[in-house]
């Protein structure tokens, strides 16, 4: 069977996968480059659970990495599948749940291939902090839409594209505060909420909510707010 990571037609940026592979052993180190993901996790988890009532739901986490969000959704009682094209991250995710006791099913498969295999089989799909790392984010949105059941929710999070986002997410986080390794983000790949909502609409997903995730460098805290100018979550629902 062909290794999906080596497939030439895949919607994947190998350099991006490589960046995450090099850091893979640090996924669960809360003081590492993954600290921001650990810190925003309770916020996004709370938002998803509030709007999709995770307990008992079949959930797909697209671009799950080392499983920070996947595990936390499983702990809320969801039956979670996590997919990624980073082999190392998936191994770390698998190993971590031996320790934590979480019960996530992890698979090395593209979201496009999974959509062909099991369309309309998840109650909830999450795709967080991943769209800004792929060549064709609209295709990922379409695949997420194909995977969710009619009436189900799809949550995306990514970075807005404007001078403030550049200042906070690239200059601030990577160069001033050293929250992230330099080169983590490419500004051109950032996505405006209107663009994401438009791709979602074309894929049959209606946007029903947006939230900003703000970082206060003085208190070193993240919080959910209504300011979507930097990092934001889009909540969508698939028409029945
Ligand atoms: C910033 S991490 C986010 C991880 C996780 N979603 C979270 O928010 O905690 C981005 C993840 O996207 C994955 N990724 C990048 N391109 C991908 C693709 N085409 N298909 C699946 N996963 C991909 C990377 O391997 C990495 O694990």
Automatic annotation (TrEMBL):
Reactions catalysed according to its record: a 3-(all-trans-polyprenyl)benzene-1,2-diol + S-adenosyl-L-methionine = a 2-methoxy-6-(all-trans-polyprenyl)phenol + S-adenosyl-L-homocysteine + H(+); a 3-demethylubiquinol + S-adenosyl-L-methionine = a ubiquinol + S-adenosyl-L-homocysteine + H(+)
Residues that, per the record, bind S-adenosyl-L-methionine: 44, 63, 84, 128
EC number: 2.1.1.222, 2.1.1.64
Pfam families attached to this UniProt entry: Methyltransf_23
Keywords: Methyltransferase, S-adenosyl-L-methionine, Transferase, Ubiquinone, Ubiquinone biosynthesis
GO molecular function annotation: 2-polyprenyl-6-hydroxyphenol methylase activity; 3-demethylubiquinol 3-O-methyltransferase activity; polyprenyldihydroxybenzoate methyltransferase activity
Gene Ontology terms describing biological process: methylation
Pathway: Cofactor biosynthesis; ubiquinone biosynthesis
Similarity comment: Belongs to the methyltransferase superfamily. UbiG/COQ3 family.
Function, as annotated: O-methyltransferase that catalyzes the 2 O-methylation steps in the ubiquinone biosynthetic pathway.
Protein name: Ubiquinone biosynthesis O-methyltransferase
Organism of provenance: Methylobacillus rhizosphaerae
């Amino acid at each position: 069977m062909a290794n999906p990571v080596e497939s030439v037609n895949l919607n994947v940026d190998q350099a991006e996968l490589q960046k995450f592979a090099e850091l893979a052993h640090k996924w669960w180190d809360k003081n590492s480059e993954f600290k921001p993901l650990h810190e925003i996790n309770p916020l996004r988890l709370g938002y998803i659970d509030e709007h999709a009532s995770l307990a008992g739901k079949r959930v797909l986490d697209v671009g799950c990495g080392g499983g920070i969000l996947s595990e936390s959704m499983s702990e809320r009682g969801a039956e979670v599948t996590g997919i990624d094209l980073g082999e190392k991250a998936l191994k770390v995710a698998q190993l971590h749940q031996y320790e934590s006791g979480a019960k996530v099913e992890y698979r090395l498969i593209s979201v496009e291939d999974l959509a062909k295999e099991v369309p309309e089989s998840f109650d909830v799909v999450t795709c967080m902090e991943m769209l800004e790392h792929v060549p064709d984010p609209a295709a990922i949105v379409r695949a997420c839409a194909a995977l969710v059941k009619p009436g189900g929710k799809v949550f995306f999070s990514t970075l807005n594209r404007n001078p403030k986002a550049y200042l906070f997410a690239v200059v601030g986080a990577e160069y001033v505060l050293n929250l992230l390794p330099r080169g983590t983000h490419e500004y051109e790949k950032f996505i405006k909420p209107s663009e994401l909502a438009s791709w979602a609409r074309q894929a049959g997903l209606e946007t029903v909510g947006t939230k900003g995730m703000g970082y206060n460098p003085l208190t070193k805290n993240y919080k959910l707010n209504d300011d979507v100018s930097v990092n934001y979550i889009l909540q969508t629902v698939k028409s029945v």
